[in-house]
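Researcher: Hi, I'm a grad student and pretty new to this. My advisor asked me to get structures for two proteins we've been looking at. I'm not sure of the right format, so I'll just paste the first sequence and hope you can take it from there.
Model: That works fine. Here's the first sequence with its structure tokens right after it:
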Amino acid sequence: MSIYDVAVIGSGPGGYVAAIRCAQLGMKTALIEKYNTLGGTCLNVGCIPSKSLLDSSHHYEDATKHFKEHGIEIEGKIKVNFKQMIDRKAAVVEQTTKGIDYLMEKNKIEVFNGMGSFIDATHIQIEGEKKQTIEAKNTIIATGSKPGSLPFIKLDKERIITSTEALKLKEIPNHLVVIGGGVIGLELGQVYRRLGAEVSVIEYADRITPVMDAALSRELMKVMKKQGVKFYLSHGVNKVNRKGNEVNVTAVDKKGTEVEFKGDYCLVSVGRKPHTSGLNAQAAGVQINERGQVEVNDHLQTTAANIYAIGDVVRGAMLAHKAEEEGVLVAERIAGQKPHIDYNLIPNVIYTWPEVAAVGKTEEQLKEAGVAYKQGQFPMRALGRARASMDTDGFVKILADASTDEILGVHIIGARAADLIAEAVTAMEFRASAEDIARMSHSHPTYAEAIKEAALAATENRPLHL
């Protein structure tokens, strides 16, 4: 029987990064993955393939709607080769997952393909092509999450689908009904809207992206409405039925009126749930709570002292980069180091166009906590770079402490917001004030200038270009 210092169950961003860090720290490491490819949800059926389709559909939209204004004329009809778009997405996924294979070899991590389950706290059974058992002094559970649903919805994965199936459709829907106005529903809804589908988003809450700052939610919905996406807020879905190639979705609005939607596809994107089935966690003394999450302490240690859990399977936001940070933290703790994570400074991003990104506290959270704050906001349309690229939607909003000027939250909607948010994370990590950013030189012309201008607005209400 092979004996390892650490075994990692699950090869998503949290799992494979944890394995790499353990190996870097000199530990003999095993990685167990039940599927044939490494990378988990993010690389195979999540972040990477969805961004591939978002980029491809964005190129198509630019070609059909914006090239002419740039002086680019294309003779003949521009058309979508949807099969090629899906094939390119698959090629990107394959290239990325092979990159993980390379990293495992480079770091001398032994990979086991098969379902890993606990025999006890130090022994793991792996059922793949053959059944085998390994011994691990420490184990990291990184089994991730899977798409959630509603109790009355029968997912047939043909017409009533999750994000997994939405990434590999054989045709562009005529009418895609999206249940859920969160990140996944909006991103995939925008993909298919660009490609010509009618898209209806049904959201139970009174706004989309309920966890984001309300100003971002309002602006994103306004922009996506201009793009042709239809929104139905404060609608509770209570029936989803399929008849042939038609899907009927029934919802009740805030007045109690029943509203019916008919489409050829229905995307159920009502969140994700932890994936712990098959782990046999109780055999190792690992406690699972009523929400299906692995119970952990502040060091991500489970109720079994030598077993840890990270990523979507534990509390907190279900974000790939959060899982990565947790994977590194656990590896370093096992090695006797004392790392930490400030969860308040883990950014959240929506990869629609315009992109949406945020870090720190929202205005609603500060009000609820009774924190005195000031804010500065600057519109993208006032930037020379935004006008040059015709990406003028959105704004940057900075929230700072009313007395100390320390930055408490940064909220961005606009071109390249996903990249711009890193400046805010860096500033907040060093507990910068709004004035600190306002006094930093930002290259011109860039989208990043909006952050400087918003900081000026927050500090002395004196943006230079507004």
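Researcher: Oh nice, that was easy. Here's the second one.
Model: And its structure:
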Amino acid sequence: MPISFNILLLERPEGLTIIGKGEPPTGECPGTVGNPQAASGNLCIYVGGLVGGTLFTFDPDNSGDRVKGYGTILGVNPDTESASGYGTWAVTG
């Protein structure tokens, strides 16, 4: 699933954090699934629910960076045939 930033960031986010359901916020990602927030230079993905798999991000253009100034791609490694999930995200440049 692509995550496309609405505005092209001048610098790509250096930090990428996935906050699992029920996990506490961090300094880089101080928000929640209902109020996503990201400290400067971070992409924070907040998991609202995930069934039958694990989340990962990968490099959209094979240049070595998982997050670009325009977004990233989020995937699910399925443990079952019907893996699914939902959540929110926030980003700052």
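Researcher: Is there anything I should tell my advisor about the second?
Model: You could mention this: The chain has a mean pLDDT of 88.
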